[in-house]
Amino acid sequence: MRINYSESLSRLGFHPEALSLHEQLVVACKEAFGSNHNATLRVLDNSVNTLSELGRLDEAKRIGQQLLELRGKNLGEHHPLTLRVANNLGCCLLKEGDFKNAEVLIRKAVDASREHYGADFPATTQFSQNLATLLSMQGPSDESIKMFRDIIARMTRILNADHVDVLAAKARYAAALSFQKRFHEAKQEYEQLLAQYRRTLSDDQPNTLICMDNLASAHGAIGEYEQAIQLVEQIVTNSVRKYPKMPFTLKAIHGLIEYRILAGRPLDSAEELRHVIELYKANNFSFDWMVMDFHHMAIAYLVKNEPNESVRIMRELVEVCDKQLGPSNVNSLVNKLRLADLLIKRQEESEAHDLQRVVKSTLSEKQKSSNDTAAFHTGMEQLKALFTTSPMEIEGIANAFVARSNG
């Protein structure tokens, strides 16, 4: 029961709490059953996903690789549990920006699961969705779109159009369209999906609220900020009342601030964002969101003609990333480059060039340890592009403010 509870915590986004319970369960399972027992390995597998979500990728990879060897040795390389570990390890590599090796692992899991268990096997469907998502994150991909459409058609035939798993697959398809910057199509998919959620669930059910948030992102991506604000205000009203500690509640508050900034609405955005960041820290919410809001806050102060505060915040962000993720992590490197850009704008080129040299040196070292230099470069650039270009161009925050001020 405690294993099921830890898995539920992770699915709901309470990753620090889930990891703490995973660690307790690993010790208990090893003492009760041994290191190679299925219960112990199941908890370790869950730990890989949770560590990955928390940005602790080196630990996740180390455990995942050990687990893959154990599962393969004990169960065989084509057993569903072995394939699940390979899939999870691939997803971890994806987060690190190693697109090539991530694709090798996930595609292998897809092919083996389809061959041995069939295209309709639940694991095959799950792995296929991960592969389609990976492909969509690398740029325009007809294969990704075709895969998602085939998956949804197959799931609809086996289950029904309103089944929760079918709706989840449709949400991932819409997200894939967004990754490929096909925002108008993504908006249409989210609108249809939201109608289904409202018909089958309710306006204040978590899946409905998350879909509303995704639809708001699609509106924001095509400059429809007022429509985005209206949706997110509904989310905040419902989620603050019913789900005050859920991660998507804080994400909605963050989104509301961002859309107001983009729409040129007056607000003391930097101070509000600081408040949101403190909530992230207090409640152990998504590290990625916190990093994004740090950057938004730096831009907000820059627009308010407080460049010293903007640089101070970016320095704080670099320190947080180095401490939490490690100085060679892709997010740490990206934010060093962001800080360097700010310093260059202030004509503090000496420090900026020092930061750029640190990034270049780190990349050179990572290339030496990479089996495929070209793949590493490609992965780094793609992940940087994804991280620095959200559906609402982050730099558009500054541009929108400056345009309104000058007007």
Q: In brief, what are we looking at here?
A:
Helices cover 82% and strands 0% of the residues.
Question: Could you characterize the architecture of this molecule?
Answer:
By secondary structure, this protein is mainly alpha-helical. The chain has 4 domains: 1-98, Serine Threonine Protein Phosphatase 5, Tetratricopeptide repeat; 118-180, no CATH class; 181-256, Serine Threonine Protein Phosphatase 5, Tetratricopeptide repeat, CATH 1.25.40; 268-407, Tetratricopeptide repeat domain (Serine Threonine Protein Phosphatase 5, Tetratricopeptide repeat, Alpha Horseshoe). 82% of the residues lie in helices and 0% in strands. The protein has 20 helices and no strands. It has helices spanning 2-11, 15-33, 38-53, 57-75, 80-96, 99-117, 122-137, 142-158, 164-179, 183-200, 206-221, 225-242, 247-262, 269-283, 287-303, 307-325, 330-345, 349-369, 373-388, 395-406. Helix 6 runs antiparallel to helix 7, helix 9 packs antiparallel against helix 10 and helix 11 (206-221) packs parallel to helix 13. The radius of gyration is 22 Å and the shape is globular. Residues 382-407 have low confidence and may be disordered.
SSE layout:
Blueprint: H1 2-11, H2 15-33, H3 38-53, H4 57-75, H5 80-96, H6 99-117, H7 122-137, H8 142-158, H9 164-179, H10 183-200, H11 206-221, H12 225-242, H13 247-262, H14 269-283, H15 287-303, H16 307-325, H17 330-345, H18 349-369, H19 373-388, H20 395-406
Mean pLDDT: 80
Q: How many domains is the backbone divided into?
A: 4
Global morphology: globular
- Distance between the amino and carboxyl termini: 61 Å
CATH architecture of the largest domain: Alpha Horseshoe
Segments where pLDDT lies below 50 for 5+ residues?
382-407
Give the helices and strands as they follow along the chain: HHHHHHHHHHHHHHHHHHHH
Helix vs. strand class:
mainly alpha
- Strand residue percentage: under 5%
Specify Rg, calculated over alpha carbons.
Answer: 22 Å
Q: How many beta-strand segments? A: 0
